[in-house]
Design goal:
Layout: H1 2-11, H2 17-23, H3 26-48, H4 58-82, H5 84-87, H6 105-126, H7 129-150, H8 157-161, H9 163-177, H10 182-205, H11 207-212, H12 218-244, H13 252-274, H14 278-288, H15 291-304
Helix pairs in contact: 3-4, 3-9, 3-10, 3-15, 4-6, 4-7, 6-7, 7-9, 9-10, 10-12, 10-14, 12-13, 13-14, 13-15
């Protein structure tokens, strides 16, 4: 039966633009581009010219969008390539372009590597070496550290792998300033702290599928109840951390938005500890998904409408 299924999948080779978009994970691309661009806008005030908001050339923003998007697209394609074996076994991923046979593995790896190299090289010549290095580091963490090394071996996979998103913020900061100061690093660390509790909600939702392919996501190893406690604890660290950035130079607008959005996330994750079901975990995942975009848009707006008490 499996052989016949593989034969069927292998013959379904009608390739469309939609398939290339799917392996590029467009929702992740959008989030990371927003993170990078808002970090660039904030850096133009907080690091470079502290009396002028958003003092950045439009061409620099355009090249950051281009290189950030292609880096994310290429990394996501390589993630699809390396995970093609387990994607065939999980219901959630069975119909992705490679396991469904619409794109060949060789096509996807060439597409992914090409985009990754393109992003780093273009960033080097159009932005600066530090921004280019951060883009390369983000690719390395997502593809090599997370996907190839940690994901199938350690329960801490998404904790460490979350730095790939932090690199997007730091690339944006460096694109504006040519360096990364303490505030730029601390802002980037928000992504690192947000990623595990957010992703673990999804992992509770699809725990059985991860278990079926021996991927040691936290809920697979410790169960839903303990995983929900880890999620709540992680968010309990994220909330005061985000507010603490006021004392490193961010303004009152950011602090108010960080307090409200972080508190909402904490409330949902507390409720998850009381009801650690796949259904509620999925609800918490969707409700708290916009947090990162909200926070980074708040950082950019805070740099424009800057006010401190």
């Amino acid at each position: 039966m499996q052989a016949s299924q593989e034969h069927y999948l292998g013959t379904n080779r009608t390739v469309t633009l939609k398939d290339y978009i799917e392996v590029s994970k467009p929702r992740i691309v959008i989030v990371l581009v927003v993170v990078a661009v808002t970090s660039l806008l904030a850096a133009s005030r907080f690091d470079n010219t502290p009396t002028i908001a958003w003092d950045v050339d439009s061409w620099r923003i355009c090249f950051l969008i281009l290189t950030g998007a292609t880096a994310s697209m290429g990394s996501s394609a390589l993630n699809h390539y390396y995970d093609r074996d387990i994607d065939r076994e999980m219901r959630r991923t069975l119909h992705r372009p490679i396991p469904a046979g619409r794109l060949s593995a060789s096509t996807v790896i060439v597409y992914g590597i090409g985009l990754c190299f393109f992003s780093v090289i273009v960033a080097w010549f159009t932005l600066n070496p530090v921004a280019s290095a951060m883009i390369a580091l983000g690719i390395f963490f997502y593809v090599i550290i997370y996907t190839r090394w940690l994901k199938r071996i350690y329960s801490s996979n998404i904790v460490i792998g979350g730095f790939a998103g932090s690199a997007a913020s730091m690339a944006g900061w460096a694109a504006a300033t040519g360096s990364i100061n303490l505030l730029g690093f601390l802002i980037g660390w928000i992504v690192f702290l947000w990623t595990p509790p957010h992703f673990w909600c999804l992992a509770i939702r699809v725990k059985e599928e991860y278990a079926s392919v021996n991927v040691p996501m936290l809920p697979v190893l410790v169960g839903n109840e303990r995983a929900a406690n880890y999620i709540f604890a992680s968010t309990a660290i994220l909330l005061p951390y985000s507010i603490m950035l006021y004392f490193f130079g961010l303004g009152i607008l950011y602090t108010i938005i960080a307090t409200i959005s972080g508190s909402l996330m904490l409330i949902y994750h507390y409720r998850l500890t009381k009801k650690p079901t796949p259904e509620f975990a999925w609800k918490a995942y969707k409700v708290t998904a916009p947090y990162l975009v909200i926070i980074f848009v708040a950082i950019a707006l805070d740099s424009f409408f800057y006010y401190r008490i």
